[in-house]
Design brief:
- By secondary structure, the chain is an alpha+beta fold.
- The chain has helices spanning about 45-50, 95-105, 110-120, 140-150, 170-185, 195-200, 220-225, 230-235, 265-270, 295-300, 370-375, and strands at about 5-10, 20-30, 35, 60-65, 65-70, 80, 155-160, 190-195, 205-210, 215-220, 240-250, 250-255, 260, 280-285, 290, 305-315, 315-325, 325-335, 345-350, 355-360.
- A hairpin with a 3-residue loop joins strand 16 and strand 17 (about 315-325).
- Helix 2 crosses helix 3 (about 110-120) and helix 2 (about 95-105) runs parallel beside helix 4 (about 140-150).
- The longest helix is centred in the middle third of the chain and has 18 residues, at about 170-185.
- The two termini are about 25 Å apart.
- The mean pLDDT is about 90.
- Bound molecules: adenosine-5'-diphosphate and magnesium ion.
- Magnesium ion binds near residues 44 and 45.
- It comes from Photobacterium profundum (strain SS9).
Length: about 375
Amino acid sequence: MSKISLRNINKKYPNSDTCSVRDFNLDIEDGEFIVLVGPSGCGKSTTLRMIAGLEDITDGEFLINGEVVNDVSSKDRDIAMVFQSYALYPHMSVRDNIGYGLKLRNYPGNEIKASVDNISEDLFLTEYLERKPKELSGGQRQRVALGRAMVRTPKLYLMDEPLSNLDAKLRTTTRTEISRMHKDKGAITIYVTHDQVEAMTMADRIVLMSMGEIQQIGSPKELFTNPKNCFVATFMGMPSMNLIEGTYEGGQFTCQSFTITLNESDQQILNDAGYNGKSVTLGARSSAIRSGKKYRDAFPDCCFETTAMNSEYLGDAINVFFNAAPMNLFVGTLGTGEPDVAIDEKITLVIDNTKLHFFDTKTEESIKYSIKSAEFKK
Ligand SMILES: Nc1ncnc2c1ncn2[C@@H]1O[C@H](COP(=O)(O)OP(=O)(O)O)[C@@H](O)[C@H]1O
Ligand SMILES: [Mg+2]
């Protein structure tokens, strides 16, 4: 049983003027799979390295099971780590690399062999067990590094972009494998990635960071459906959420390209929050922007005419980019049963007004956030 707490953690590197991590607060419960996600340079690796004990904590407290361990050395924290740079022992075979952690802890030889055989099979490494790291591809080395961590059962697994060198197909299989092994072992896992798809598919809870600060913590569903601000809204989900600046007045949202009538519950929220007659930023995912008679009939006050600029064929859907000032591009997803769109052709688009987000144009904070987050806490 483990519980981990990070309290007001700050990190300032000695050669830097600013903090790389600011006021980081997080409690992690036993068995949770936490994904730290955010753009490059936002402080993910720095946070993970402080948890690992490889980097000093400038300010704040790191606790394992209620005990402050800021000054406990890395090797005494009972963690297994996987880094982007595999850090394998070059003179050892794959088998010895994977089994090394168990050997250090004096496990009997037959037990080490059985565990290594087992994990190697899960990670498709069986045929490479007698090779040296230099005889492997980058993706194979990355899997050896994973195997070396997963063969153990520590209090805590830490992984820093462990799938970055795998091709798309292997990344998906290994992702599933890591999730499965995590369920088997039940130890807390903190996983760092810049890839929102990995975060969405693997996490129990996502911690989304930007410029050294946490933007939002929550389940994948929570971040996707109730983003706290514009940054979270556009970071999670592909294609990125459309954000359009305009004005809210008398139940309608107006921007340069269109006016739509909002649904009653959104009108109430905006009125209550004092936005009548004020500027707001409308957020609409591509899945809320449709075409076709069915949608025109369902949302007659939410239609407007525009021109298709470009399209991306995805098989069972098409992402179409439209002209919609003040945005240059505006993406909608047209599915089966909706009309084909030719480039430069005029088309009537429909905004599904039951799926909209609203942000304060100045602060970029979500106007619906606190109301919706109460629903998540129920
Ligand atoms: N050893 C270091 N010395 C000084 N600055 C560093 C060091 N390591 C990282 N940084 C800076 O800290 C910030 C966060 O880096 P990092 O944690 O590696 O980001 P991420 O893993 O999210 O890409 C960056 O601005 C980076 O330049
Ligand atoms: Mg990093």
